[in-house]
Amino acid sequence: EVRIKLSGLLAAFADLLTNSSLRTCITGSLAEESTQFEECLDEFQLLLSAAIRLSIDLRDSSAADQSQQLLSNVFKLLPTEGLIQCAQGLLNEGQYGQNGTTCNVIIQSISFHCRQTKVFDKRASAAMLDFLSRATECLVWAANPSDLVHIITCVDEIVKRFGRKDTDKVSYLVGPIIGQKGLSNPDVHVQTASLNVMTSIVGVVGEAFLEMVPQTMSVWRQVMLSNLEQEQPDAALLNSGFSFITCLATTVPLVVSGRI
Fold it and tell me: What share of the chain is helix, strand, coil (3-state, %, to 5)?
């Protein structure tokens, strides 16, 4: 009986969050010029954090579907820029140390919003690009390879969709992505994700990537040679590695001209 009541309560709350008037009110309160901005942002961060914890705690229960729907509706309640503002406050070193699962839910939600956001939405695209700096901080804080893959994949989504709007912010990513929490990491899945985002970065910054070629190629060679020396080289890593070098050779012709 308690489980039935819990499921009903969660479903009712999820339905409430779809109310258009509530969404309009919250969006207005989260406008930076609003006098309620700071207070509303703090309250929504608490709501988002509670919804995430609830979905994690109930994922193996009979109320799992209702808790997931509630979380989904909480994420949909805010426009993209509002969600990222809240995420900035929830993604921190302490959170990764205590509960990486919560952080992964947030990162994956931002990836989802990235795919849904219109490229011509200036405020949303600017918020996504601003999030890149927090994403690189998350790389430093995260330790689990699966956490690193989620972060790097999120970065890749943002770079591919909005990177051309600010190539300086994209160029800054090269150092963190080829570092110990990226391409230089021993985990093959982290390496593969890193090569995918490096391919996206090359495609965005174009010939400006030339100055980053020496440090990048040094790591690329080490990773590829190490993989090829294995009894069974990882096919996904090989594909990502060759995709990167092909994109590099096409985009920065000096790489294969013998002039660098």
Answer: 80, 0, 20
Cβ within 8 Å of residue 100, ≥6 positions away: 142, 143, 144, 147
Amino acid at 235: A
What does the alpha-carbon distance between residue 114 and residue 40 come to, in Å, rounded to a whole number? 23
pLDDT band at 31 (very low <50, low <70, confident <90, very high): low
CA 254 from centre of chain:
32
The length of the chain, given as a count of residues = 260
Q: Report the Cα–Cα distance between both ends of the chain, in Å, rounded.
A: 72
**CA torsion through residues 63, 69, 70, 72, sign:** positive
CB 102 within 8 A of CB 95: yes
Tokens of 150: 């989620």
pTM above 0.90, yes or no: no
The 10 Å Cβ neighbour count of residue 146 is: 14
Q: How confident is the model at residue 246 (pLDDT cuts 50, 70, 90)?
A: very high
Q: Which two tokens stand for residue 146?
A: 């699966």
Tokens 């990167």 found at: 244
| Cβ-count burial 198-235 (b if 16+ within 10 Å, e if not) | bbbbbbbbeeebbebbeebbebbeebbeebeeeeeebe
Please tell me whether residue 11 adopts helix, strand or coil conformation: helix
